[in-house]
Amino acid sequence: MQNEINRDSSVISTSRWIIWILTVSVIFSTILADKTLAAPAVPSSPSSFDCKVQPYYKHRKDGKPGREVTLTFKGSKLYGPATIRVEYNSKTEETVVNEPSGVDQLSVLLPAGAGVENECQVRISVITPKNELYRSIIVPAKRQWTVYIYPHSHVDIGYTNTQDFVRKLHIKDMEVGIELAKKTQNYPEGSRFVWNPEALWVTDNYLKVATPEQKKDFIDAVRKGWVCLDGDYDNSNTSACSDEELLNLFHTSHRIQNLTGVPITTMVQTDVPGASWGISQAAFQNGIHGFIGFPNLGTVRKPWENNPFYWVSPDGKSKILFLQAFPYGFGYNIKGSKIGLGKVQGQIPGIDRISTNDPTANFLDPLIFDETAKLEKANSPYDIFVTPWSLADNSFIDTDLPDAVRLWNEKYAYPKLIIAGAKRIINDFESKYGSIIPEIKGDYTEYWTDGLGSDARRVGMNRRATENLVQMETAWSMLDNKTPSPRNEINESWRYCLLGAEHTWGYQDPAAPLAKKIEQTKASYFEDAFKTSNELLAKTFEPIEKTGSNKIAVFNTLSWDRDGLITLTKDQSTLGDRVVDEKGKAVLSQRLSTGELVFWAKDIPALGSKLYTVEKGNAKKSKGVRIKGNTISNGIFSVTVDPKTGNISSLTDPKTGHEYVDKRSKYGVNSYLYLLGKDSADKTSTPYDIILKVKEKGPLVTSILVE
């Protein structure tokens, strides 16, 4: 029994042992399974990281601007917690990040001052529970740029639609501009909207139709800086303007200054690159101290872009600050074209402004970073960049702009954006850099004068009209008329002259039915200038005119004595071909093929006159201008016309023998070339079957007519 009992005990013990082992095995497996679900293994850490220094500054927690560096992790994501350590200039900054799900990239801000003036070395460490990685990087210098945005609607008086349609569009822009400025007056500094009408033609037309309440709001807006006015009447081809016309370009600014009480000290020229030298002196004499040019895209932008200079006037004393800023057409490229703004702009009923769901879309981001980088590479001494913002020619206002700027400045510390007018831009440029801006003299030769060449006859009308007006105003004073000069009529005639010289010619689609109407209106400016100036000239001398008299009074409206050729109509010279002075002495005269009579008046006193008489008899004979074959000479110049081409093949000084025509040129001077449509220049046609005729034959006038 005992043996059995022992056997049984042994069996029992063995069985219990087996059970215990199985139980422990199950429990241990359960513990391992629970650990896998509750606390996984520590994730891997990145093996390295790359650094990219961004071209901007962001706002640090201490309120200072800091360069942003983007870290890109390799080998693994970065899981938190981790410490980012930045060491620069014996200073250390640490930031703890905790990204449980892991990140591929992370941005850190460098200490204030790092990489502002000069490139610098920065050590960046990434410390995790598993490892510590670091990179030493060179941070290139990046300036803290201020970018001024000049919001405007480029004023083309015509081109996109009829002149009247354009006028109404810009009037509406003024209303919307004031409304938007009022709405955003509590926005952060820099993002508050201001409106730049660009040309006083807009303001002048707005005030003509504004209600008393609108005029009050306008004056208030100008005084508060919501509307910023520039002094030139329109975007003019200054190369087509006389000195007096350049002065009249600013006439309207004085009237509007008197209305608002706010001085207008800047002018802006958009689309037209360059300006004639006389504009600097005319502008200065009218209180203008700064000139900003926003040229078109199709011209040579260098070397003066973003290189301001003090433009010394022809008098050698006065000067204005000139800045050729960024071209105006980029607004259309960046946004206007992408939102469908173009030929239909302004023609959709009920729409009078531009507004989108995302103000930051199609904004200035790439352009600002690219252009400021170019300026830094060129070692520009200026940390100011100026860009216009107009989404099309004759565009509605982009009401997204204030929010786009506000959101930009919240995101970036630099470049800092500021919506501004020309006065603030010029003042800030001058106050910061006035001591290093150079002085330049000379003509900034104007480009974009194609329109002038396309209608030479009417351009001639404008030149004649401006001369008429200058002489008329002077003569009115000389004659001591008892009544005041007709100021309103004179101003209106000058306005036609300015509209004639304005840079807009024709319609954007010359084949469209609308083109003819726009071209006719443009032509009327020249014709009306010519007509009204002639009427004013006649009105001036009307008190002393006597019908049928053979007495001719010659007035000199200049401030120095002079000689000159006088032309009488056929009706004014019916009594004969002989002309005598006040002493009865015959002077040189000549009957022209047109029936007109010309004579030579000598020594007409400054701001004075002389009396001549037309009488029966032959004209006084004398040697004068000579013609021989196809060559004309007056002793000062000798001109030869090529009978095969009609071109001037020679222009010489008889005394020195100097030849002014480049003999290497196949065209000579005064050549006529015809270019059909958009054909290239090598497809130009030249005239043929040339006929030369002598039209007038001395002694005062000699001419060759080329057919």
Describe the 3D structure.
- With 707 residues, this protein is an alpha+beta fold.
- It contains 15 helices and 28 strands.
- Strands 9-10-12-11-15 form a 5-stranded mixed beta sheet, with helices on both faces.
- β1 and β2 form a beta hairpin.
- α2 packs across α4 and α13 runs parallel beside α15 (513-541).
- The longest helix is centred in the N-terminal third of the chain and has 37 residues, at 2-38.
- It is elongated.
- Mean pLDDT is 90; it is low at 1-39.
Average residue pLDDT: 90
Distance N to C terminus: 154 Å
Can you give the helix content as a percent range?
Answer: 25-40%
Count of runs of 4 or more consecutive helical residues: 15
Number of extended strands: 28
Strand content: 15-25%
**Per the principal axes of the C-alpha atoms, what is the gross shape?**
elongated
Could you list the spans in which at least 5 consecutive residues all have pLDDT below 50? 1-39
Keywords:
single chain, 707 residues, alpha+beta, five-stranded mixed β-sheet, four-stranded antiparallel β-sheet, 15 helices, elongated, disordered N terminus
Describe this structure in a few short sentences.
The chain has 15 helices and 28 strands.
SSE topology:
Elements lengths: L1 H37 L9 E12 L5 E10 L7 E7 L2 E7 L7 E5 L10 E8 L4 E8 L6 E6 L11 H21 L16 H10 L2 H13 L18 H6 L2 H10 L5 E6 L6 H8 L4 E6 L13 E4 L6 E6 L5 H7 L28 H13 L6 E6 L11 H11 L4 E4 L2 H12 L5 E3 L8 H5 L1 H23 L8 H15 L11 H29 L9 E6 L5 E7 L9 E3 L5 E2 L1 E3 L5 E8 L3 E8 L10 E3 L2 E3 L4 E4 L6 E5 L39 E6 L4 E5 L1
Parallel strand pairs: 8-13, 8-14, 9-10, 10-12, 11-15
Antiparallel strand pairs: 1-2, 2-5, 3-4, 3-6, 6-7, 11-12, 16-22, 17-21, 18-19, 18-22, 20-21, 23-24, 24-25, 25-26, 27-28
